[in-house]
Amino acid sequence: MFGIVRRRIGFGASHASILDRCLHGIRPALSTSRCYSTAGKEMTVREALNSALDEEMSADPKVFLMGEEVGEYQGAYKISKGLLEKYGPERVLDTPITEAGFTGIGVGAAYYGLRPVIEFMTFNFSMQAIDHIINSAAKSNYMSAGQISVPIVFRGPNGAAAGVGAQHSQCYAAWYASCPGLKVLAPYSSEDSRGLLKAAIRDPDPVVFLENELLYGESFPVSAEVLDSSFSLPIGKAKIEREGKDVTITAFSKMVGYALKAAEILAKEGISAEVINLRSIRPLDKPTINASVRKTNRLVTVEEGFPQHGVGAEICTSVVTESFGYLDAPVERIAGADVPMPYAANLERMAVPQVEDIVQAAKRACYRSVPIAAAA
């Protein structure tokens, strides 16, 4: 299905040469408060990710990319286009189909001070490597009393695509965000993708970077500031994509676009919705969320993943704990259906949130429609 080139390429020589050239000292994470771009040129999410990788590899010889088809094929989704030709096979490493193997090698390289970027063809395949991600990467800094830093990025498409079935459609935001020691990012726009990937690569801790296959070809306006090679976005800071006063809608990744479309529909019916692009799932920007809820007095959370123990549940807990007295309506949670993803297109659409679901939830929160319980 993915047209995988099953070439067996040895790790030994290339990886050893990288370790031999390891430079000591780890650059601290860079952050900036520049979170908003003004109108400028258009850039696809694919181009944003590619340019971020290119610039960080150019700026730091310790950064290298490893994964299936990232080199000769230039990435299953062409995110690594041109990087093999520019940086060579010692820094753009094609691997066998063995996520556990190359993820473990990446974590080991990070122990030695390198900055690996590990690409999963889909985050569903990260299940093969989850022991290295959780036990080897996320916990090592704590278990070593701060002596071992693990500056590594795990990136690739996450969540539902289209017609790829239950085993290739899961959202792992809540899975990885539940683990101390990891940072979990989920970009929406080209600005998000470029700024957050740069921040992830520069960060001294392991970062899970959740992209979305259906967003790769989407174009977004980016400013000259975003295109600057020094640009990055702060990890742990959400962005208010649209201001409003009647209801707060939180979302991440592809669902941000759905939330913005829902806000446009709601505006025509006299409901002013504030849309928050979470950007960072762990750490979660609870101050921005609570400040918005204290203004609008209502909350709708949106995510593609399963409803139980989801990101929306964590947001709901934060708001109930910190801003309960400000709520004028129950929190509405929109999530994927609590079933494995169906393969049939009509059932698949029913299993993931749609714009109309967000609209109806916002109306319920604003008492503009009949609540689900009453309708039942």
Give an overview of the whole structure.
The strands form three sheets. A seven-stranded mixed beta sheet has the order 3-2-4-5-7-6-12, with helices on both faces. Strands 9-11-10-13-14 form a five-stranded mixed beta sheet, sandwiched between helices. Strands 1-8 form a two-stranded antiparallel ribbon. Helix 10 (about 255-270) links the parallel strand 10 (about 245-250) and strand 11. The protein is built from 15 helices and 14 strands. The chain has helices spanning about 10-20, 45-60, 85, 100-110, 130-140, 140-145, 175, 190-200, 225, 255-270, 285-295, 310-325, 345-350, 355-365, 370-375, and strands spanning about 40-45, 65, 90-95, 115-120, 155, 185, 205-210, 220, 240, 245-250, 275, 280, 300, 330-335. It is α/β, with parallel strands linked by helices and about 375 residues long. Helix 10 (about 255-270) packs across helix 14. Mean pLDDT is about 90; it is low at about 1-35. It starts with 11 loop residues before the first helix and ends with a helix.
